[in-house]
Amino acid sequence: MQRIIVQTKLVPGTLPAVLIAIAALAVAALAGTAVAGPVRSVGAMTFVDADTIAIADWRGGEIHALRLPPPAIVTPKPFNLRNVSAPIARALSTQADRLVFEDLAFRPGAELAYITVSISGGATPKPALVSIDADGKVGVVDLRRTPHTSVAITNPPAVDKRLWRDVPAASITVTDMVFRDGKLYVAGLSNASFASTLRIYDFPFSGAASTTSVEMYHAVHNEIETRAPIRKMAIVDLNGEPTLVAAYTCTPLVTIPLKDLKDGAHVTGKTIAELGWGSAPVDMVTFDIGQGPMVLLVNSHKSADLIPVSDIANAAGRPGLNTPIKWPSEPLLGLKSTSIPISGIAQLGTQNKDFLGALRRHDASGAMELVSIRKGAFLRLSDFVNEYDFADYTYPPTDAFRDVHYLLRNDEGYPDLARRAAR
What we know:
By secondary structure, this protein is mainly β. The chain has a domain at 382-422. It has 5 helices and 29 strands. It has helices spanning 17-31, 85-91, 309-316, 402-411, 415-422; strands at 45-49, 52-57, 62-67, 80-81, 99-107, 112-119, 126-132, 138-141, 148-152, 162-163, 167-168, 176-180, 183-189, 196-202, 210-218, 223-225, 232-238, 241-247, 252-257, 266-268, 270-274, 281-287, 294-299, 304-308, 333-334, 338-340, 345-350, 355-361, 368-374. Strands 12, 13, 14, 15, 16 and 20 form a 6-stranded mixed sheet that branches. A 5-stranded antiparallel sheet has the order 17-18-19-21-25, covered by helices on one side. β12 and β13 form a beta hairpin.
């Protein structure tokens, strides 16, 4: 939001008509929108439309909606960037080892990845937002000058609360955000005794959030939990009912109909699956590649889980879990998923209809990579060395993987090696 400064000469005992007019215009302008606050930190983010990105600011106690300039028109192609730390650091005039990568979101229709970054080194990390294209060109979004509106995060955790001694509870005021049908759904913590909270904002921002506290049964811990927040979520239609699918640490999968999320309510989510202990959700995405809608949950310490939405609907129609797993020999309960070989991911997002995009660390160098992963294949072929990769290997005419290898080698920037599969 721009500030307008008007200078005028006051006549004693009078109020110039111009000031009255300006005041009236200001009141009218502010009546339908939120006032823009400064961005003090950056974390979870999501696009609400092709030109507007919502970013959580836990230090400022606000959510900001930034209006971005129109992007250039580009041809879609895969990301194969082996080190984005260095060019992002150069663009931000800092060192790569000071960058903390917070979240990733792809701008719809633009083939641009947006990354929230905290720059360490001072008393308080400096927030930054950058864009990067598949050629590695980095753009810096000026958080002070970009037009934006802001809305307060109601009742955040107290500033003196800590987790693991030095982690501010306020840093997980917002753990994930999803936009649907004019509303921004925000998961995280509050300062209430039932701390796990879902806040719902009308967008464009027009007032305080509707707030619902959430509890669920955790089959690993064998208890009803009210503090641990939803970590990642998506909204899907289950038999025509818009429903929140939520994943928690250690890894319960829970459904909550959107119609139950009312201001001041306390709801119990239905636990439909226990997907494995000792891990945390990293990201959740939805897509349909011709086999029906799917949910993909990427995890911190285990394989990703792929689940058809139809299976989630069937599970949501049955009683939820209410008994514990048999630890450690039988770690899974309820709805079954398909294990997908996506791991070691820092952040995941939907690039376009064909690709997911992932931030991940290179195992040996530690450099942050930004790479595309083709939906349906769910792996990067160049991450592995196997029989097919030797120069003297010849594909049998009926080899089932030949066409897939040709496609993925081209995706990953190896057209010369792709030709081997075309022989």
